[in-house]
Specification:
The complex is a heterodimer of chains A (461) and B (179). Chain A has 461 residues and is mostly helical. Chain A contains 15 helices and no strands. In chain B, strands 2-3-1-4 form a four-stranded antiparallel β-sheet, covered by helices on one side. The two termini of chain B are 13 Å apart. Classes of the chains: A mainly alpha (461), B alpha+beta (179). The interface between A and B is large, with 61 and 64 residues.
């Protein structure tokens, strides 16, 4: 039997690639997911990952402390390249967050049943990625302790933020994004925390999970309000996610630097964000399903679907690369033309060609179903795309800045140890938060999985 | 047997969602009004069967969005035009297109906060304890069992008759919920 394309609205049909493997009841699915947190002994893979991530988190803390002590001069940045790793990391991390919101909100509105078993950890991925992203602009400020000057409040200096500045839009967009993501994620967790409260054996766990569940009883009226609020939050989060990366792209395109000053930037950035975000969702879900034995819930169907979405986003990104080249020559602007040729042939040319290889050429293998169903290949490909998208942001930021209008001010950027420490440390801190999450909270939405069991039962009847 | 004043209600336990929805319909038809139905997931049609139509979360969300959006637009206008006017390249002080991003974000934030906290407050949460948690087997309400509770506060409630009525609804068992 061939793939079932979508199951919009209709009950699930059994296909060659089911969303949920068979034989689960309300009880067994609740037990299986909650036991990961409550009773299952810690897997060695978790311990190894946790140790590594803890070390890298300490590296981040150390690098940040030294940065605060010494200043941004410890990085390779200087005029004209005042933005480099910090902003690249920022754009990259925000983008990774977007796939989580896309999975949990947009696919909910489209009634895509396959989102159910991956939405919880995708939302967690969003929160932790946006937390890492939020650090970066603060770190790259000369006086980071004044970052709150971006927030409008009646201060004794009688000064207000400049509302025409995209950097002010940024703090509104990122601030809203992290708050809404946390609320959406926590709201979905409330009924599951009630399950953990009711199933926990020790008094301490009962109290902790019970406080988290806020006294949830599962009463029909509570569920009704919960459903309405959840759907509305999804409806709010969907345009929000588009707006956030659009605002991030405006940080660049409002400036008149060649390579930034382009109206294609908002959709280009949103597609790139989803591209790298879905890649990160694969990078996380493949080890997660192996280590915690979740192959019945996160099935090949999920990997296949994520592969397809990556392919689509990758094609939009490829189109944007093409349009950048086309517009530079069509506009007749010699600075834009030089910027493109400099990317292809200048000192940063290897980065440009790696970006093309990683983001355009290699993802074309996702056209083949055999590749999309091969877990190992997908895992490698997801890391390739993550690296490719990081390099793309680096390329946009650094190659545009390093040779602008005046050749006398041209210069090169070389990263220092501290640039790398912040990047690698942020990866470690992200992993640390994620590993803590899968150990102490249900990584899959239990109450929504019960509903999936019901729909599967009805579909078979 | 618990005395009537210390009784919160009588509770029946069911194995699946259909039996629970049927039981709620029959209890309503029989004239009971102070009913609570508990399920481990959101059961379609259950709140309708209870006669619960307007959840008011959507209205609160709309209000939250309006307050957030107009509030921050007013703040931008007030600070940029009245309190701290800056001539930036001859642009109008009230340069509304530049005010849209913050307005949009705060509309979303206001609406989301209203949806989340509105849902909690209307649901009476957070709440540290509730008599229903005294019910036998109630820990299964968050796992695989479905419950219908007829509260002692119901005008038609009668410890004996109501118990007999609940037994007719095909439950797994019927129990008492002490206060």
């Amino acid at each position: 039997m061939s793939l079932v394309a979508t199951n919009s609205g209709k009950p699930l049909r059994e296909s060659a690639l089911p969303v949920l493997k068979g034989g689960y009841s309300y009880a067994s699915i609740s037990d299986k997911i909650s036991d990961i947190v409550l009773t299952r002994p810690t897997h060695w893979g978790w311990v190894v990952g946790f140790t590594l991530c803890s070390v890298l988190t300490l590296l981040l803390v150390g690098a940040m402390s030294y940065l605060f002590y010494k200043g941004v001069g410890i990085w390779g940045v200087n005029v004209p390249i005042a933005w480099a790793f910090a902003l690249t990391n920022f754009v990259w991390w925000v983008g990774i967050g977007h796939a989580g919101t896309f999975i949990s909100a947009f696919l909910l509105l489209l009634r895509q049943k396959w989102r159910t078993s991956i939405n919880r950890f995708a939302e967690a991925m969003t929160i932790f990625a946006v937390a890492m992203a939020g650090l970066m602009p603060i770190l790259h400020l000369g006086r980071p302790w004044f970052f709150y000057w971006l927030i409008p409040y009646p201060d004794i200096m009688n000064v207000w933020p400049q509302w025409r500045s995209p950097l002010v839009w940024d703090i509104f967009a990122i601030g809203t994004y992290i708050i809404v993501s946390i609320l959406f994620w926590y709201m979905g967790l409330i009924p599951d925390l009630a399950t953990l409260r009711d199933r926990a054996s020790s008094r301490a766990k009962q109290i902790v999970y019970g406080l988290g569940a806020l006294g949830w009883r599962g009463e029909a009226r509570q569920w009704r309000r919960f459903d309405t609020a959840y759907l509305l939050m999804a409806g709010l989060a969907t345009p929000l996610v588009i707006s956030v990366h659009s605002v991030v792209s405006l940080d660049f395109s409002i400036g008149n630097t060649p390579g930034w000053h382009s109206t294609i930037f908002p959709p280009y950035f949103v597609a790139g964000a989803l591209f790298s975000g879905f890649a990160m969702a694969l990078t996380i879900s493949i080890p997660l399903r192996a280590i915690f034995g979740l192959k019945d819930f996160i099935t090949l169907r999920h990997l296949d679907n994520i592969g397809k979405i990556m392919l689509v986003c990758g094609l939009i990104v490829a189109y944007s690369y093409l349009m950048e080249i086309f517009m530079a020559f069509y506009s007749g602007d010699e600075f834009d033309q030089y910027m493109i040729l400099n990317r292809m042939r200048g000192p940063y040319a290897p980065i440009y060609w790696i970006v093309i290889l990683f983001n355009v050429v290699l993802p074309q293998s996702l056209w083949f179903k055999r590749i999309r169903l091969s877990v190992g290949t997908l895992f490698v490909l997801s890391i390739v795309v993550n690296i490719g998208m990081w390099l793309e942001r680096f390329m946009i930021i650094v190659t545009s800045l390093h040779r602008d209008f005046l050749p006398s001010s041209w210069d090169m950027f070389y990263p220092t140890f501290w640039d790398w420490a912040i990047l690698i440390g942020s990866l470690g801190a992200f992993g640390w938060l994620f590993l803590m999450f899968v150990r102490f909270l249900p990584a899959i939405s239990i109450s929504e999985m019960r509903k999936l069991v019901l729909e599967k039962k009805e579909g078979e009847a | 047997m618990t005395s009537a004043s210390s009784l919160y209600g009588l509770i029946a336990e069911f194995a699946d969602e259909h039996t629970l929805v049927d039981a709620v319909r029959r209890a309503r038809a029989d004239g009971y009004r102070n009913l609570d139905a508990y399920a481990p997931f959101s059961v379609e049609g259950l709140s309708d069967a209870l006669g619960f139509r307007k959840d008011r979360v959507a209205l609160l969300t709309l209000l939250g969005g309006i307050v957030g959006g107009t509030g921050v637009y007013f703040l931008q206008w007030y600070t940029a035009v009245i309190d701290y006017p800056i001539n930036a390249g001859g642009r109008p002080l009230h340069s509304w297109p530049a005010f849209i991003p913050a307005t949009f974000e705060m509309t979303v934030l206001g609406a989301a906060l209203a949806a989340f906290f509105g849902m909690l407050i209307l649901n009476g949460l957070p709440r540290l304890n509730h008599p229903i948690f005294n019910a036998p087997d109630f820990d299964l309400a968050s796992r695989n069992r479905f419950f219908l509770c007829i509260e002692a506060a119901d005008p038609r409630f009668d410890a004996t008759l109501t118990r007999r009525f609940l037994h007719e609804l095909d439950p797994l068992k019927v129990g008492e919920v002490p206060r």
